[in-house]
Amino acid sequence: MPAVEDTQESYGIHEVFAGEDPIIDIVAVHGLNGHPFKSWTTRGEEGSQQRCWLSDQDLLPRALKQARILTWGYNANVTALLGATSSDRILNHAQTLVAQLEADRSLENASRRPVVFVCHSLGGIIVKKALAYSASRTSKHIKHLHSIYVSTYAILFLGTPHNGSDKVKLAGIGQRMLSALAPKKVWDTNNQLLNALEEGSETLQNITDQFAPLMKQFRIYFFWEQEKTDLGYTKDYVVDESSAAPILDNIERSGIPACHSEMCKFAGKHSPGYKLVVAALIRYSREASSVITFRWQEAEAMLRTRRAIEAEELVRDY
Question: Residue 184: what pLDDT?
């Protein structure tokens, strides 16, 4: 795995495992103050080796030899700890994710290969917005961006704050995220990314509304943290079960016995949550091909109909 520091070089798509004749793309999207490699890598304390389960040849690559495994990095900093704070809105990140992932897959001649997203924390909100954005890109000159929506088969959400009982509760989640990441640093509580976590905000409400009708298109697995995080002044769950794993029809859900920042890091096959996550990825990779092939047939028919309607409208105008 390449050493990428916390600079703009860490942004964008990174391939961590090429796969053998890949049949699926697994795309990992980190969360608040995250990093495309470090967020998925154990810390290697007490003499143990650092391990990234996405790229370690004994972990996910061994379990899914025919998967191309990618991570995506973006500026999700909310403190001065790792650089300038992010001024981008979630929509900007979502549009960039769609554009960069589509370009990467196009260059690999794999635009129709099934996709499974693995999202931690805020990364899940960005992926939901990205899929809603991609679903709407059907005009003639931008229909290539529609491919991400059509090709996505499943999404694993690890500790993503989907909702809360009220605005104060969601704001509290945001504050606990900052406490867990940088308890001794000055918080940038006006940051656009943090504001989007407050229930009732226009950004989060729009994402919820836009993604809800699309959910039936995907296999979805919600994971919540089962260990409290040391926030300096107390211990608490950063994102509680009701927000991370709302009970919905046709949605898989499970706890992971780890705290918020560690629930997406696995040091070995027996690490808490590893088997749950990898078993789901294997299952989805087996199921995806036939479903996505059919979905592309439907998408092509829909796009042909739209082009025919547009042609008829042009003729009438003349």
Answer: 43
- Name the amino acid, one letter, at 194: L
Query: Over the stretch 110-132, which tens digit does the pLDDT of each residue have?
Result: 999 999 999 999 899 999 999 99
Q: Specify whether the CB–CB gap between 262 and 41 falls below 8 A.
A: no
Helix or strand or coil: residue 115?
A: strand
Give Cβ neighbours of residue 301 (< 8 Å, ≥ 6 apart): none
User: What confidence score (pLDDT) does residue 192 get?
Assistant: 56
pTM equals 0.88
Q: What distance, in Å, lies between the first and last C-alpha atoms of the chain?
A: 58
Report the 10 Å Cβ neighbour count for 172. 17
Q: Which residues of the chain have pLDDT under 50?
A: 2, 79-87, 165-168, 183-190, 199-200
| Distance (Å, whole) CA 241 – CA 224 | 5
Q: Does residue 12 come out as left (phi exceeding 0), alpha (psi in the -120 to 50 range) or beta?
A: left
Supply the pLDDT for residue 43.
Answer: 81
Here the tokens at position 197 are 């976590």
CA–CA gap between residue 266 and residue 75 (Å, rounded): 24
Gap between the Cα atoms of 244 and 158, Å rounded = 8
- Radius of gyration (Cα) for the chain, nearest Å? 20
Alpha carbon of 308 to those of 20, 136, 140, 248, 313: distances in Å? 40, 18, 11, 38, 9
Using DSSP, state whether 16 is helix, strand or coil: strand
Locate the DSSP E strands across the chain: 12-17, 24-29, 67-73, 115-120, 152-158, 219-225, 229-230, 235-236, 252-256
3-state secondary structure of 259: coil
Amino acid at 234: T
The tokens describing 207, both together, are 């994402």
- Cα–Cα distance list, 129 to 125, 178, 208, 211 (Å): 6, 22, 9, 7
Instruction: Quote the CA–CA distance of 189 and 284 in Å, as a whole number.
Output: 38
